[in-house]
Amino acid sequence: MDVKQQIEKLRADLHRHNYNYYVLNAPEISDMEFDGLMRELQELEEAHPEFADPNSPTQRVGSDLNNEFVQVAHKYPMLSLSNTYNKQEVAEFYERVRVGLEGEAFEICCEMKYDGLSISLIYDEGRLVRAVTRGDGVHGDDVTENVRTIRCIPLQLNGEGYPKEFEIRGEILMPWSSFDALNKEREAKEEPLFANPRNAASGTLKSKNSSVVAQRKLDAYLYYLLGDEVPNDGHYENLQAANSWGFKISECTKKVTTLQEIYDFIDYWDVERKNLPVATDGIVLKVNSMRQQRALGYTAKSPRWAIAYKFQAERACTRLNSVSFQVGRTGAVTPVANMDPVHLAGTIVKRATLHNADVMEQLDLHIGDMVYVEKGGEIIPKIVGVDTSARDFMMPPKAVFITHCPECGARLVRYEGEAAWYCPNDTACPPQIKGRIEHFISRKAMNIDSLGPETVDEYYRKGLIRNVADLYDIEVDQINGVGGTREKSAQKVVRSIADSVAVPFERVVFALGIRFVGEIAAKILARQFKTMDALAAATEDEMLQINGIGKVIAQSVIQYFANPDNLELIRRLKEKGVSMELSEEAMSAQSDKLSGKSIVVSGVFTLHSRDEYKTMIEQHGGKNVGSISAKTSFVLAGANMGPAKLEKATKLGIPILSEEEFLNIIE
Ligand code: IVH
Question: What percent of the chain shows pLDDT beyond 90?
Fold first, then answer.
């Protein structure tokens, strides 16, 4: 055997042992033997770099290199499921399927709804070539490097029965045991804890450092095989086939035909799920035949052939010890209950949100009360009631809302129509400052993805940044070594901050974090006023003339620009070269080609997202409308346009344009 063959044999053996251990849970060799084989392979690979392979089992340890995520388009959009909360709604789904299939017999595949984050894996010739997060359903982040480190995801498939190219989707999860261990570790290091395994899995998968992912022990269940050449018509059968190729498939999955069997599955797993090693938040029901799935089709958001049944929230009773108050990024103050620790849906709960002052008042909470805690959708627990019968006759003190900010001492204010109390000291209150910086660097704003909340916190604590303009003054030497940043990463941070000046003006407007100015409002304002100076000088009346801008936004914009600190900030950003006006390109993208036209956008798109199409319509003077009427000029239709809409458009003789036709018009 020559070296190449030796390497290939070791790789094949290690892939198999990995599968036996992580997927089948049935190792054939000891851990020591496994480590020995791995070491042997590592040594050979080191000595022969010409045979390197990113899918080698040795690559599962990840690397410290800072990887950037590139956004890629999904071949098929990643839709979500519509939810049901009781058996009646499940029965309605079953009936819709029966009617939709015109009485033809059908099977339902019952599965657990795993509570992690969805992933799309692409295989070519049996090798993992790409892993993409759901993202907005149309585009996701390429997280291949990180996914390679998840042991139960096969890098090389077994046997030969798999299609040449296919996609398989599933859920990436952090098992309860890894989650508990991780939070314990973080608690010891005084790092912020993850609220639930889903957040932990998501934070981990988005880590820029794949060796972190490798250490965190993620798990994955695959639940949908798609492609042009899937082996069977049955979804369940496809999953079994995928299992034989090396994928981890849930063992809880069951094929049934009657409604009663579905109910039995729900009842059984509602209890039994508590013994599973990972978090679940419901059950998924899928019509098994892919042919029948195609016949039933999709609505704009979800398939008609599947549905999720969400489990009822779990409830526990414990003692309320105190109420503390947290100040969020926007200055909103959230009351948090501190309670005696209690077991709830797989974790120990000590804190619960009380939402706002009104909720606190309605609950009529007194310190020392026995309170009922629920985990709505298994996320952040909340207090849903008080056991008043357990109250002492000597009524303990009532829990009251604070009047001053616990972070900076400013007197709290309440804005008209809002439930929350706010700390108005937005320029000097620490969580607000950090929150604004985090917003500024976020993906949809300046997209400075070499920074994250933890680094912002570090730099803030070191006094390096007090506002977003300070980011542009950071020098490599100042951050080298801060919070474990190495020189290479420090250079990358400085470079990506410098690169962000090229971000288009509309995103700069969004990045400023003007209260109530979201992504869409920012776009509208940027297009309307074209420069920051014009926006800063805009009057309330001028803004109210604009479609999509209401009083709350207009007043907030005025207030923002009335603050000299903000004007100074903008002056500094401008000095650093941040875009302060609409680009030539964006200006020329505007026209009145669609002026006077009312347009309905429906279906799932591939070339641009639905929101992008809506923006284009506005840019070209058209109006987006929600439903079809005789006044509709045309429908811009993607795949799977709803049949009701299609029928209505046809009946009224309204033209239906494809993506390409639409783009031709506005070209
Ligand atoms: S099927 C088109 N099956 O639930 C249908 N989804 O809103 C695609 N999920 O984002 C989903 N367990 O991440 C399916 N057994 C399962 C699932 C599952 C969890 C997640 C998935 C999706 C969300 C549905």
Answer: 54
Q: Dump pLDDT digits (tens) for 621-634.
A: 888 888 888 889 99
Across 16-20, 92-96, 255-259, 421-425, least confident range = 16-20
Cα(665) to centroid of ligand 1, in Å? Answer: 37
Mean pLDDT, residues 462-479: 93
* Alpha-carbon distance values, 459 to 67, 440, 463, 499 (Å): 21, 15, 6, 19
- Helix, strand, coil share (%) of the chain residues, nearest 5: 40, 20, 35
| Amino acid 315: pLDDT | 84
**113 Cβ closer than 6 Å to some ligand 1 atom:** yes
Active site residues: 113
Q: Model pTM greater than 0.90?
A: no
Q: How many helices (H) and strands (E) does the chain have?
A: 25, 22
Instruction: Write down the pLDDT at residue 304.
Output: 95
> Are residues 242 and 168 in contact, defined by beta-carbon separation less than 8 angstroms?
yes
Q: Which fold has domain 430-502?
A: DNA polymerase; domain 1 (1.10.150)
Q: Is there a contact between 278 and 306 (Cβ–Cβ < 8 Å)?
A: no
**Does any ligand 1 atom lie closer than 6 A to the CB of residue 307?**
no
113 φ/ψ angles, rounded to the nearest 5 degrees? -95, 105
Which atom of ligand 1 is found nearest the CA of 82?
7
Ligand 1 centre from 66 Cα, in Å? 30
The reply to whether ligand 1 has any atom less than 6 angstroms from the CB of 226 is no
Any atom of ligand 1 within 6 Å of the Cβ of 171 = yes
Report the CATH number of the 315-424 domain.
Answer: 2.40.50.140
> 58: which 2 tokens?
């040795």
Q: What pLDDT score was predicted for residue 378?
A: 45
- Give domain 73-310's CATH architecture: 2-Layer Sandwich (3.30)
404 touches 413 (CB < 8 A)? no
Q: Which two tokens stand for residue 57?
A: 């089992």
C-alpha 237 – ligand 1 centre gap (Å): 18
Pocket test for ligand 1, best of 132, 134, 171 (most atoms within 8 A of CB): 171
Q: State yes or no: pLDDT of 23 exceeds 70.
A: yes
Query: Which of 225, 253, 284, 294 most suits a substitution to test ligand 1, by most atoms within 8 Å of the C-beta?
Result: 284
User: Are the CB atoms for 326 and 357 separated by under 8 Å?
Assistant: no
| Atom of ligand 1 lying closest to residue 224 CA | 1
Residue-wise DSSP of 431-497? HHHHHHHHHHHSTTTT--TT--HHHHHHHHHTTS-SSGGGGGG--HHHHTTGGG--HHHHHHHHHHH
- pLDDT of amino acid 328: 87
**Equal fold, 3-61 vs 430-502:** no
